[in-house]
TrEMBL record:
Protein name: PWI domain-containing protein
Alphabetized SMART domains for the sequence: PWI (SM00311)
Keywords in alphabetical order: mRNA processing
Residue ranges occupied by any PWI domain in the UniProt entry: 12-111
InterPro entries (alphabetical): PWI_dom, PWI_dom_sf, Ser/Arg_repetitive_matrix
Length: 126
C-alpha cells in the first residue's frame, strides 16, 4: 500500500464515516467473516475467484487493526464499482462482530436464524 497512486487515491476518495472507527480483529470471528467475504466476492464477480478472495483475507488479517480505506483501494481493480458497497458492508459487519460476545455480526446471526426457520417451515409443508 505504498505506491504514490494509492496514496493519492486514499486522499481523494470520500469514505463513509464508519471507516474512521477501528476494528480489533482479535474480537472478530474471522472464519465466519471469511465465509461471508468468499460468498459476497463470488456473488459480485459471478464466479469464485480465489485470488481476490485470498487478497481480501490477507488485507483484513494483515494486522490487528486493518485499514478498510487501504483495503477498498486495493480491491477496486477487481471489484470495480461494487467495491465501496462491499467494503462498507464488510466494515459494518466487522464493527458489529467486535461488539458481539461470539465475534459474529448480529446481522449474520439473524440471517441464519431466518434461514433455519424457513427450512423448518418448508419441511413441515411437505
Amino acid at each position: 500500500m505504498a505506491t504514490a497512486v494509492d496514496q493519492k487515491l486514499l486522499r481523494q476518495t470520500k469514505f463513509p464515516p464508519e471507516f474512521n472507527q477501528k476494528v480489533d480483529m482479535k474480537k472478530v470471528n474471522v472464519e465466519v467473516m471469511k465465509k461471508w467475504i468468499a460468498g459476497k466476492i463470488s456473488e459480485i464477480l459471478k464466479s469464485e475467484d480465489d485470488v481476490v478472495i485470498e487478497l481480501c483475507f490477507n488485507l483484513l488479517e494483515g494486522s490487528r487493526f486493518p485499514d478498510i480505506k487501504a483495503l477498498q483501494i486495493s480491491l477496486t481493480g477487481f471489484l470495480d464499482k461494487d467495491t465501496p458497497r462491499f467494503c462498507k458492508e464488510l466494515w459494518n459487519l466487522c464493527l458489529s462482530a467486535q461488539s458481539s460476545p461470539q465475534g459474529v455480526p448480529k446481522e449474520l446471526l439473524e440471517a441464519k436464524k431466518l434461514e433455519l426457520l424457513q427450512e423448518k417451515v418448508g419441511s413441515h409443508t411437505i
